């Protein structure tokens, strides 16, 4: 995709995208370690799950919300950190599981939310890539996603390994043995190898576009949100993400022949639900690029195929070509996705 020359733009992001299949294999080999955390969670018998996160990690938390509600049949919600940090809310969190997702584990608001929730009775679990972070110090339990140091500002390997770690955790809570994830490393390598030509075509097709809309349903909604963020932060595009259902409730009115649409659609109920959405979008003249294992089954001008896996694991694979697309577009537009303007690797908010 691009040169590994010492000072080549995007060299870190390129290398970190390529690392992911090996990192997935390493993480699956640690499934027993994650299952031990799940066992402690099961002992507490949580009745509700809250998820706290920011940025890319917020999209991983959105993915976890679907996992928890569908696979565990537990209600789950995303925390608004400011209710604690700015407004001082102190709800009773007895029998609540709080999972805080942060690749750095260093954002003060997430640390404060976790510390406060633990005082108020919640079982707190940190999912991070930094085992000695402040977040790990205040959480009762922790899961290390094991991505290693990430040099590019745009999160790639830390995002995908967080998805896989969350899947392994939820799967273990429901009594699974990571069976569906055993081949995820080889499937990831097949995804990267098999999508390279189509991604390059998409880069050429969209290099001059100024407006991109990403959409997906079910588990894949998180992938659409993450794709939009990656495009915004690396290529400075006006990129927005909507669930396929929400798209038809109003935003579709803004879709026209000048709109590029990234449709994340993988085999399963979420992908099936996207068919009608994309028929409407195509009918409004939008240029649709379908990404995922069900890309051949929907109306699209361009397709980026992804191998079939269990639907609940599809975001781990479908995000890979979307990361490559963000990388390629940033380079084609003259940018360096390793260090986008105005961004730092760790963003500290309150």
TrEMBL record:
Record flagged with keyword Ligase: no
**EC number of the protein:** 3.5.-.-
Which stretches make up the SIS domain? Answer: 37-179, 199-340
Looking up SUPFAM superfamilies in the UniProt record yields: SIS domain
Keywords, A to Z, come to: Hydrolase, Repeat
What one GO molecular function would you report for this record? hydrolase activity
Q: Which domain of life is it from?
A: Bacteria
Against Pfam families, the record matches this protein to:
SIS
This chain belongs to the protein called SIS domain-containing protein
**Which organism is the protein's source?**
Allokutzneria oryzae
